[in-house]
Design brief:
- By secondary structure, the chain is mostly helical.
- Helix 2 packs across helix 3 and helix 3 crosses helix 4.
Length: 71
Amino acid sequence: MIQKISTYFERQSFGVCTYLGERFNVSIFRIRLLFIYASFLSIGVPLIIYFVGVILLDMRRIFKSRNKVWE
């Protein structure tokens, strides 16, 4: 049951922790734990940072996949 829940959340995640882990060569698990612990300690500020990261990554994907008119 726990494995199903874990797999579901990993598939549905936005990819911010994965992007940061690959970018800085750090374990994705450690970055997720950092976000969780920081959220409890600072009353949700890391969640705001996480959602800003989601928006920025989505904008990046949109601009990369957009067809260029002049090419």
